[in-house]
Write a structure and sequence with these properties.
Mean pLDDT: 76
Number of domains: 1
Distance between the termini: 27 Å
Structural class: alpha/beta
Number of strands: 8
CATH architecture: 2-Layer Sandwich
Order of helices and strands: EEEHEHEHEHEEH
CATH superfamily: Ribonuclease H-like superfamily/Ribonuclease H
Helix content: 40-55%
Strand order of the largest sheet: 3-2-1-6
Number of helices: 5
Strand content: 15-25%
């Protein structure tokens, strides 16, 4: 989770999950950095990719509380690792997002921030070869962008 940009002088937070090979699992832009937002992000990621055995997070208490609640709710044992250096894979992957967003200085609305960040994340997933397969066929590089507008 990273503080990403200001929208009308309020910070917005980008939650991102990356697997051990550097592939993007999920991302979510939120207006708050609290247990409710962290829990919403983890539930979204788990719904699409299943429960993990290990999670590496920063020292945020909200993330820890959300994972503890998820463990209690599901009964699944999830090892929580909180180490400055173990989180480096996510930080390095996040660098590409920061490089594009920083020159923009800020977004006018939360909606424009969400749409822009979805496009940036999608572009990086395409670059990493994470194409979505639907009905046994590969998307062209343009089709995922068109799906954002629909």
């Amino acid at each position: 989770m990273r503080r990403i940009s200001r929208s009308k002088d309020q910070w917005k937070y980008l939650y991102r999950a990356v697997d051990s090979e550097g592939q993007t699992i999920d991302f979510l832009l939120t207006a708050h950095r609290d247990k409710k937002a962290a829990r919403r992000f983890f539930k979204k990621a788990v719904r699409q990719h299943g429960l993990p055995d290990k999670v590496t997070i920063d020292k945020s208490g909200a993330n820890t509380a959300a994972i503890e609640a998820l463990k209690e709710e599901t009964g699944h044992a999830i090892e929580i690792r909180q180490n400055k250096y173990l989180n480096n894979l996510v930080e390095q992957d996040h660098r590409s997002v920061k490089r594009i967003v920083r020159p923009m200085l800020s977004f006018k609305t939360f909606h424009s921030a969400r749409i822009t960040l979805q496009g940036i994340e999608l572009l990086h997933m395409i670059k990493k070869g994470q194409m979505i397969i639907v009905d046994g066929r590969d998307f062209s590089a343009a089709e995922p962008f068109y799906s954002l507008v629909a």
